[in-house]
Amino acid sequence: MKIASYIGLVVGLAVMTGLIVWQGAMEVADLLVGTGWALLWVPVIWIPSILMNARCWQLLFAPGFGPTFFQAFYAQWMGRAVNTLLPVASIGGEVVKARMLILWGADAAHASASAIVDKTIQVLTIILWGGAGTILLVYLALDDQLAMSILIGGAAIGAGAAGFIVVQQAGMFGFMAKSAHRITKSDFFGDLIETAGNVDKTVKELYRMRGRVAVATLWRLVALVSQTGEVWLAATLLGYPISIVEALLLKSLSSTLSDFAFVVPNSYGVQEGAFVVLGGLVGLTPEVSLAISLAIRIRELLIDLPGLALWQHNEGRAFFQRRKSVSRQDLGN
To answer: Do 169 and 120 contact (CB within 8 A), yes or no?
Structure first.
């Protein structure tokens, strides 16, 4: 998976660069520079989405085991930054956010299980979000063939998500730990069996909290819809205003296609290609569509990079605390 992510990164950046050169780098740059500092307002639209996603994750804990809202917010922020900026196939960030809670004193089984359930809800809501955009595509009679392709892809991803839920309920992690121990005879995997079993048990408990899962899913969906605002605002600031419905269609389908291509880090090239194709359907020229795609990437600099730095700060502090603790134990002996 790691090798695929690195290959996806190289290919994605090449496609992204090729699209910009093809449409005229100077023309795209002129559109972006011409708006001045106003484009810095675009990432602000993303902030409510981060807050709602934190609330979604906070709900996916059994009562008494959940983090505070700010712990969920900071951990979610760092996890998203890792998924966005590093070649981790959109999975590494889930490990990071669970680890942050564990470092802050959360129960390891609950932190890990909730991250798994939260990731599952992310996938399910992305499918629903893509379905909304596809319905608009059909309703507006813009491209039935593209709509059918997206529906087929969504159905395949949906089947995979359903299968993932089934194996979670069947005790996936315990099975994996036992199988690895049986094959390798390693004490490392033997020690993991009990921990994996606790995670499986907690995952099942979390899914039984149907009310909380439903509300968390709603929070995640509302967060996705709120992201429509960044496309609408970017187009308006660039001087090519579009309607909210058109912005919703662009954001829904571009983000869904980007998430389908999860092996490409940060959907480099995928997002740009999606905007060029979809933008043409709503009357935008390729260079304007590319400019909108690049404008909404500003949040990667203003939101995701600080999140990555915050993660490194927390990991560094935990590392030095462990070293200090070991040194004290050595002195005591």
So the answer is: no
pLDDT digits (tens, 9 = 90+) for 46-103: 889 999 999 999 999 988 898 999 999 999 999 999 988 887 767 888 989 999 999 9
The Cα–Cα gap between 132 and 121 comes to: 16
Token pair of 141, please?
Answer: 């009679």
Amino acid identity for residue 62 in this structure: A
CA–CA separation, 250 and 264 (whole Å): 20
Euclidean distance between CA atoms 53 and 142, whole angstroms: 32
Burial class (CB in 10 A: 0-12, 13-18, 19+), 130: buried
Contacts of 93 (CB under 8 A, 6+ apart): 78, 79, 80, 81, 82, 83, 84
Q: What distance, in Å, lies between the first and last C-alpha atoms of the chain?
A: 44
Identify the three-state secondary structure at position 286: helix
Spatial CA neighbour of 275 closest among 300, 299, 247, 301: 247
Q: Which two tokens stand for residue 263?
A: 């092996």
Going 254 to 255 to 259 to 264, the CA torsion angle's sign is positive
Q: What is the pTM of this model?
A: 0.84
CA 156 to CA 144: how far, in whole Å? Answer: 18
Lowest mean pLDDT, pick from 71-75, 110-114, 277-281, 328-332: 328-332
List pLDDT tens digits, range 282-294: 889 888 888 888 8
Positive or negative, the CA dihedral 186, 188, 193, 194 is positive
Q: Can you read off the two tokens belonging to residue 117?
A: 């359930």
SS3 261: coil
186 φ/ψ sector (left φ>0, alpha ψ -120 to 50, else beta)? beta
| Residue pair 308/81 in contact by the 8 Å Cβ criterion | yes
Measured CA to CA, the distance from residue 38 to residue 20 in angstroms comes to 22
Locus of tokens 């730990």: 177
As a whole number of Å, the CA-based R_g of the chain is 22
